[in-house]
Amino acid sequence: MAHPHDANRRHWDEVTALHRASAFYDVEGFLAGRCTVGPLEREALSPLLRRNLLHLQCHFGLDTLSLLRLGAARVTGVDFSGAAIAEARNLADRMKLSAWADFVEADVLDLDLGRRFDRVFTSHGAINWLSDLGAWGRAIARHLAPDGLFYMMEAHPVGLALDVDGAGRLYQRFGYFHEAAAQTLDGVPDYAEPDYVPKEPGLGWTWSLADIMAALEGAGLRVFEFREYPFAAWDALPGMARDADRYYWRRDPALGPATPLLFSLKARHDA
Ligand SMILES: C[S@@+](CC[C@H](N)C(=O)[O-])C[C@H]1O[C@@H](n2cnc3c(N)ncnc32)[C@H](O)[C@@H]1O
Question: What is the pLDDT of residues 78-118, one digit of tens each?
């Protein structure tokens, strides 16, 4: 029987080559030394020295390999797209980093690598592709070392519910709360190449902040830090400009009041 993630895998297999060639991901700049992980994430995950790190939904590995360059002892990136994992391995080979970087093709919900990590990390447009957040929480708990840190930085579900009307005003377009039925992303342009509408649209789910907390707590993890930010990881709304740190802002007051567009949290095993 078809799994709801099958359509998503086809979507990510389709867009990986497009992303590899896009200005948004700027792979040439990355190969020349650009770090793709923002300063907030770098600070939250530090120290990385002598730590091993698991990166969930790593796409084609830019953040994973950036974290290795920042000093992690060993990194493991997991993604269910065969195209993304092949490209991540190719980049690691090109950078002569393959001895310290493993890339695993797997669905994050069934992941069982049989080992634990000092850091488990996920970020920016990952959990909205998952049909079951309870299984996600359990996968994190299974792979986190007893004294390890789980850190995530994600699109804020309040920001994801908003859009801008014809007069430039923010309004709530989508529901905030989770619904079991997936939303088809038919006709939604690609975030990295907005002129391209994927042929394989994929399915998405909304997860509220309470759903995320419950998934982690249900897996035996304790959230000990939570932050919200008025900027995004991509130009989620009209009138956004990217800063030097890679975050996107709506600074013009005429565009309306500030709203949460990203959140981050840290969790560890509940002792
Ligand atoms: C928006 S990208 C994440 C971007 C990422 N933060 C980066 O470093 O570029 C979402 C990724 O999640 C992956 N993905 C979606 N659902 C997945 C699943 N169930 N298991 C594993 N990977 C998944 C996709 O293949 C894609 O590479």
Answer: 999 999 999 999 999 999 999 999 999 999 999 999 999 99
| pTM of structure | 0.97
Which residues lie with the beta carbon below 6 Å from any ligand 1 atom?
Answer: 5, 8, 12, 57-59, 62-63, 79-81, 84, 107-109, 123-126, 129-130
Report the domain count for the chain.
1
CATH code of the domain containing 87:
3.40.50.150
**Cα–ligand 1 centroid distance for 76 (angstroms):** 14
Domain that holds residue 174: 5-269
| Contact of 61 with 69, CB cutoff 8 Å | no
Cis peptide before 238 (omega within 30 of 0): no
In three-state secondary structure terms, 224 is: strand
**By CB neighbour count within 10 A (0-12 exposed, 13-18 middle, 19+ buried), where does 228 fall?**
middle
H or E element, residue 159 = helix 157-160
